Each structure stands twice: as C-alpha cells, then as structure tokens.
Amino acid sequence: MRRKLKINSLKSKIILSIGIVIALCAVVSAFIVSQVVEHQMTDKYEVDKEAATEFLSYSLAPMLDLYDYKQVERAITSSLIYESIASIAVFDDRGTLIKSAIEQNVTSEELDVEKHNITSNGKVIGSFEIGFSKEYIDEQIQTTTGALIFGVLGFLILVGFALFAFMNRSVIEPLQAFTKTVKEINPDNLSRRMQVRSEDELGTLATSFNQMADDLERSHRALQKAHDELERKVEERTRGERRRAEQLRAINEVGRRISSILSLDELLPFVVKSLQETFNYYNVNIFLLDPGSDDLVLKAGAGGYEGTVPVGLPVKVTEGIVGWVARSGKPLLANDVSQEPRYRFAEELADTRSELAVPIKMGTQILGVLDIESTELNAFDETDPFVAETLADQVAIAIQNAKLYEQARELATVEERQRLARDLHDAVTQTLFSASLIAEAVPRLWKRDPAEVQRRLEELRQLTRGALAEMRTLLLELRPAALEEAMLGDLLRQLTEAITGRARVPIVLTVEEERMLPPDVQVALYRIAQEALNNVAKHAGASQATVNLRCQPEQVELFIRDDGRGFNPESAFLKHLGLGIMRERAEAIGATLKIESQVGHGTQVLVTWTDTS
What we know:
Structural class: alpha+beta
Shape: elongated
Distance between the termini: 89 Å
Strand order of the largest sheet: 7-6-5-10-9-8
CATH architecture of the domain at 10-158: 2-Layer Sandwich
CATH class of the domain at 10-158: Alpha Beta
Radius of gyration: 70 Å
CATH superfamily of the domain at 10-158: PAS domain
Strand content: 15-25%
C-alpha cells in the first residue's frame, strides 16, 4: 500500500519547491548547453578541418614541386601537434605514399579521414589523407558542456539560496512567528501579539490578526465577566432557593406544630421561639388587639430581650411600625429602620437595624401583628415577607382554632351537665320518687297485708340499689378513668343493677374466670354492654335479660340476651345509631360483633375479642 509523502512544514515545502525548480532548470539548461556546445564545437571542428586542409594544401604544394620529401616529413610531423589532427599521409601524383605520420594509440576507427588533392598551377601534383581525432572532438564537447553545466548549476544553486533567503526572511519567518503566536494564544494567554515588520500583505495580515486578538481578548474578558456574574447570580439563586426550601420546611414544621396546640398561652410563645431559632432572627414578637381598648398588647416575644419578656406591654395602633400595620392591615418591610419615619426606638431592642411586620388577620378582621427584627441592615429579602405572612395566616387560624376549642369545651361542658341532669332526672329522681311512694304505702299495709308489705319492701330494696348503681354510673361518666381502673365484672354488675332499678327488668349477670383486660378493650366492652342494655331498657319491652362474661386465656366473650320484641337487623342498622356505634367500638379493638334478632323472639349480642399479644 502506497504511503503519500506528507510535508507539514511550509519551510520544507518551499525548500522542496526551490529544489524541484533548480533541478528542472538544471536539466533543461544541461540539455540546451549540450546542444549548443555540440553545435558550436561541430562548427569549429569543420572550420578547423578546412583550415588544416587548406594549410596543408598550401604548404605541401611547393615541397612536392621540389620533391623535397624531408621537408614534407617535417611539415606533416609538425602538423601533428594540433590535437585535432591524429594522422597525415602524403602521396605523389601517382598515388604512391611519400610520407606518413600518425599518433600513437590511435586506431583507424577513431579517425575521421579525409583525402584532398595537392595542386600547383592548376595541375594535380599529389594528394594527402588527413585523419582528424573523433575522441578529441568528443572530449572537447564533454569538457565544454560539463564546464558550462557546472557553471549554470552553480549559478542556479546560488539563485536558489538567494531565493530561499529572501523567501525565508520575507515569508517563512513571519509565517512561523504568526503560527507560534497563534499556538501560544489560549483562554489563559490572550495578550500575545504579532510584530508588524513590513507593510506588505503579511504586515496587513499581522495587523488584522492583532486587531482580532484585541477584539478576542475584550470579548473573552466580557464573557468571563458575564460568566462570573452568572455564577454569582446562580450561587445567589441557589442560596436563595436553599433558604426558601429551609423556610418552607420551617413553615411546614411550625404549621404542623401550631395545628396541634389549642392553648394560646402555649401556642404564641412556641411560635415566636420557633421563628427566632429557626431563622436566627434578632427578635420576634406577637401583638394581639385588645378588644377592650382597641390597642395592641404584647402576648409573646423571643430573642432580643435581656430580661423577662414584657408580656402585656400595650402599644397604641397610632404609633410605630407595628401600630401602622395593625391600622392598615398591610405588611411593612424596613431594611434600614433609621430611614423609616414610622419606626419608634425601643430601649429594650436597641440593636434593631431592620424590621418586618405583617398583620395577623382572619379574612378582613385584624387579630394582631407578627413583628420580626434583625441587627443587620438589609437583612430581609423578597422571600421573608412571604414566609412571615404565611406564618401569620397560620397563627391566625391557630388563634381562631384555640378560641373555637375553648368555646367547644365550654359548650361540651354545658351539654355534659345537661345530659347528666337529664339522666339524673330520668333515672335516679324517678327511682327515688318510686321508692318514696312505696315507703309511704308500707305502713298502711303493715297490718292489713304483710305479704304485700314484704313484696313492696323487696321492690324498695331493688329501687334503692338501682338508684345507688345509677349514681355510681353517673359518677363514672364524670370520671372516665375509673373505667380502666375497676374490674370489668364489677362495672357490669353496677351497670345491670342500674338498668334493673331504672327499667324494672331483671338482669342476671354471670362472670366466668375474670381477669384484668387492656384498658381500651375493657372500655369498649363496657360501652357495648351499656348500649345493648340501654336498648333493652328503652326498646325491647323484655321481661328479663342475661349478661354473660367469659374470660379465657386467649379470648374474651361478652354475651347479652333478652326476651323482648326483637327487630329486623337488616333495617335496624340504618335506623338505630346505637347499633352502628357498637360495631365501631368492636372494630376499634379488633373484636367481632354478632347480633341476632327476630321480631317477637328477642335479641342476642355476642362480642368476641382474641388476645394477639
């Protein structure tokens, strides 16, 4: 496979080009010189031949006329001194050889022999043969040609060196310097420039390159500046996004905690402390409007106070940043409080330099102000008002929830009191009233019908025991923790006595192998039994009922049965909320609830709980 010759250097290319031109010129010159020399030497050779022939004809004629053959011998011998004449032979008019001379080491093949007559007064008196040396002529041609060729070649070489020196100085060196400068220029070194040494095209190229390099350096500096600015903005944005994410996380955490606190005395200190510690603020205050005076009152503070937070400190709505925010319902950001005319200096917070205040409001109702302060100038950015307003809205909701919770607690207390009053009236009061009637009738029947008196006394005993059990049951409602402390059998016994005393329905309670149960299981079973027996007392019209509690090591069964009118379970679940509550209580402890009933055949309730611990 052929491999092409690769020349990467301009200098090598120029040298090769000059060499090729010189070689071609040398070949052409050698050919021309050889042709010219050969032609010239051939002409000279012919001239020399004619001259030698004429000279010999002229000089030998008198000698032959006088038959001076010795002189002929000397003449032809002396003629051999010419390098071009190699042999001479003289003949008389009859063709007889008179004299001859020939150089040594010369053969007839190397001679160019010519024969000429010798005349005198128009009469042929003899002849001669002259042999010219071909080798001499060839040597002359070669010598002359070689000398001329070497001369021309030397001249061409000198011209080539001169041309290379000129090209090297005018083209190669500037281009090499240009290439070197181009290679040295990089993003870290844009100050390299070309030296302009001439005003030709290369000088123009160098000037243009320097201008381009200047433009590139300015562009690179501008690009680097823009890049640095972009990196700075990206870093600031990243830092801002990170801060925003931290703020949102803090908002979520604080909001989650706020939603679980229903006491204002606990809620507000928690909010200010969380904000101050999470965002490293100098000081955080919460002011609430006082409905009596329409002024603001400091409810909680954290951070900048050296001593005790002056909770209860009044602030007029006509003064300061906090007052303006409460009055206008708009947030206010002062990144330099010295330039804010609404700022009022406070000795307790003398290091404040920046302040952010946002209203705490529910709809259009202003509840108060969340005030945040910093010891640094320009401490707040565009995200801080958003964070503060979001937290203020959550605080407003939490305040509202706390108020609603207090109201709900008060309402629940009132409703519970009313329920207990109704139960006391419906059960205990009526039972005691019945007992008082029996007690009044007993003396009158004492002598007339002792058996009736005995029956009435037994009824009186049941009524009083029922009233006592009812009172204990009501006391359990006032103290729910007692349901977890007592044994379930005792609770059921007290419940059955209360129902018996209230509804005059005999209830038989059986407890087998009683043991202490988990509190949630015990409460659930008690409430299910309570709901079932209340249904017996109110709706069943039963003559008797039984309650059976059987406690095994891994399973507990509660069985309640009555002989009342019964019902259709399919429709009863839709009409009677009590049955649905019983099922929910059973599911809450993982127990199964089975209710069987037929119209006219009573009702059976079976609750089965399995201990999986």
